[in-house]
């Protein structure tokens, strides 16, 4: 039995929870029926936040505000340089408040504070990148259609966008969507997860301070069925940008089809890291541990399947196990923590259920496998499962916890078959010194991102998204702003009408 983790109570535990109001049309408002959502720190157990809880009436007010701001407000009509200046100011303000925002995300999600700081720093970079794209957004012209015709293709903002985000990277994920929508000239209604809404409300204040006009960004806390669903079906919403589970993504897409809205979907993953004997095995072992346990495995990109060549499996796994034993699990607010708390006790039970199912289907627990005793919060020991085979539940479904399933292969064909044998296709990793091997895997894996001799890096310049049931469309990259636009073709004719129809 491990000694209980000692979790210290931070200053926030002895003061009243912070209260957040909804942001609608530039004003901070309570819910009309006065309902409030409560959020406890999963790492400590005390109440961190109270959010006004929106319902259908608030969705209606927020969408109407965003629609007015789009139809008659200055935002879509500004010069791109003016919008870019405001986005840059927002980036500066996020940077100034980085520590506060990181602490809110760590307290509400249970993620380690040092990691949260990195995420907010990454978000600052994304806001700046989006500002640069605002100024380079352009359409096309066709002067090759004959002397009498000039074709011009405009890129116009699509309109009101509903943005719905999950709990695992609260500030980072809204920052993969909102700045690009704003750069395009769109207006938005944003719904963060009901468990991690605080940092998105802070972002709302920052945007107002930076000069984003009232009504352009509206923020609602609330449940998926009460708030997310009407944000998707509302007839004045033109596009839905959703990040979350594949299950809810499918429901969202079905609901959006009613009015044929554009949808952008970033969904689940079941990503494999494939390790060949000629790889830098020390680096690969570190990346295997990072891939499996970063953000407590509550990560769409988690390298939750370690696909290792049989010839090196025993020694390599011994190294992975030894590194895992050195991973610091514990208080999210401790600078040295690498794996923090699980988001909720329900989710922890779901994850340990997967471990139990794996054991009953023939897998064996090589390391970890159980909840860690602690004086507060809920923590799971990083877990390695061996003897996992391709068709076991744990090898196919997204576990979303610190559980690394190990599968083995003896040929590149089998490695690829295992990697592709899931309904998901978000990302993958390959470790080998051979360019041939790396290229064969990179080309053969059906996923939106492949990391070669590295894992889970991200850059605003590089598009991100999934094949198969991991999503639809791409975020980030140079076309990220275009995603929030419609194309309009204008044909200019000059001179005498040609091609008379009646004559
Ligand atoms: P979730 O699908 O349960 O919830 C996501 C959001 O959708 C939340 O804000 C939720 O309130 C809302 N929602 C729930 N029901 C809804 C409905 N009927 N209509 C509209 N909105 C609704 O996901 P989660 O548990 O918050 O997040 C974890 C999931 O997110 C994992 O599957 C993970 O892989 C995925 N994810 C994907 C990416 C990516 O970029 N591909 C990134 C992070 C997380």
Description:
This protein has 503 residues and is of the alpha/beta class. It has 15 helices and 25 strands. The strands form seven sheets. Strands 15-18-19-14-13-21-22 form a seven-stranded mixed beta sheet, with helices on both faces. The protein has a six-stranded mixed beta sheet with strand order 10-9-8-11-12-24, sandwiched between helices. Strands 1-5-4 form a three-stranded mixed beta sheet, with no helix packed on it. The model has no long low-confidence stretch (mean pLDDT 97). The protein binds nicotinamide-adenine-dinucleotide. Nicotinamide-adenine-dinucleotide binds at residues 164-169, 173, 191, 193-194, 224-225, 228-229, 232, 243-245, 248, 251-252, 266-269, 300, 398, 400, 426, 466, 471.
The residue fraction in helices comes out at: 25-40%
* Rg for CA atoms: 24 Å
Which structural class best describes the helix and strand composition? alpha/beta
Total helix count?
15
Q: Largest beta sheet: what is the strand line-up?
A: 15-18-19-14-13-21-22
The low-confidence runs, each spanning 5 or more residues with pLDDT under 50, are none
Amino-to-carboxy terminus distance: 93 Å
Average pLDDT metric: 97
Bound molecules: nicotinamide-adenine-dinucleotide
Taking the sheet with the most strands, its summary is: 7 strands, mixed
How many beta strands in the DSSP annotation? Answer: 25
What is the 3D shape? globular
Protein name: Aldehyde dehydrogenase family protein
Organism: Mesorhizobium australicum
């Amino acid at each position: 039995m491990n000694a209980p983790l000692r979790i210290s109570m931070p200053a926030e535990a002895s003061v009243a929870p912070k209260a957040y109001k909804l942001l609608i049309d530039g004003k901070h408002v309570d819910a009309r029926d006065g309902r409030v959502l409560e959020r406890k720190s999963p790492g400590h157990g005390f109440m961190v936040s109270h959010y006004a809880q929106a319902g259908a009436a608030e969705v209606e007010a927020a969408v109407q505000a965003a629609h007015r701001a789009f139809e008659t407000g200055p935002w879509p009509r500004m010069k791109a340089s003016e919008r870019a200046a405001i986005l840059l100011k927002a980036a500066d303000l996020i940077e100034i408040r980085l520590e506060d925002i990181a602490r809110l995300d760590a307290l509400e999600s249970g993620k380690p504070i040092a990691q949260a700081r990195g995420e907010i720093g990454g978000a600052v970079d994304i806001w700046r990148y989006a500002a640069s794209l605002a100024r380079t957004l352009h359409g096309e012209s066709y002067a090759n259609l004959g002397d009498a015709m000039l074709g011009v293709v405009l890129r116009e903002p699509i309109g009101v966008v509903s943005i719905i985000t999950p709990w695992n990277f609260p500030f980072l994920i809204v920052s993969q969507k909102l700045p690009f929508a704003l750069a395009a000239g769109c207006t938005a209604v944003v719904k963060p997860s009901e468990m991690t809404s605080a940092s998105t409300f802070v972002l709302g204040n920052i945007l107002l301070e930076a000069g984003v006009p009232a009504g352009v960004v509206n923020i609602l806390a609330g449940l998926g069925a009460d708030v997310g669903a009407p944000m998707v079906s509302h007839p004045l919403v033109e596009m839905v940008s959703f990040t979350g589970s594949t299950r809810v993504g499918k429901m969202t897409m079905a609901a959006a089809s009613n009015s044929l809205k554009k949808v952008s979907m970033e969904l689940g993953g079941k990503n494999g890291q494939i390790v060949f004997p000629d790889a830098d095995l020390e680096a690969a072992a570190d990346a295997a541990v990072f891939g499996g346990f970063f953000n407590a495995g509550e990560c769409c990109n988690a390298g939750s399947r370690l696909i290792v060549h049989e010839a090196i499996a025993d020694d390599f796994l011994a190294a992975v196990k030894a590194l895992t034993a050195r991973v610091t699990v514990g208080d999210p607010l401790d600078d040295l923590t690498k794996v923090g708390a699980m988001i909720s006790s329900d989710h922890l039970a779901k994850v340990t259920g997967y471990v139990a199912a794996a054991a009953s289907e023939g897998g064996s627990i090589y390391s970890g496998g159980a909840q860690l005793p602690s004086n507060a919060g809920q923590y799971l020991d990083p877990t390695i499962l061996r003897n996992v085979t391709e068709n076991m539940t744990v090898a196919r479904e997204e576990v979303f916890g610190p559980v690394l399933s190990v599968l083995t292969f003896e040929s590149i064909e089998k490695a690829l078959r295992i990697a592709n044998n899931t309904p998901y296709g978000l990302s993958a990793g390959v470790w080998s010194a051979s360019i041939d091997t790396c290229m064969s895997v990179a080309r053969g894996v059906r996923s939106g991102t492949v990391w070669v001799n590295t894992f889970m890096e991200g850059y605003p310049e590089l598009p991100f998204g999934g094949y198969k049931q991991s999503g639809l469309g791409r975020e980030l990259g140079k076309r990220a702003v275009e995603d929030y636009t419609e194309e309009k073709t204008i044909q200019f004719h000059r001179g005498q009408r040609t091609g008379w129809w009646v004559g």
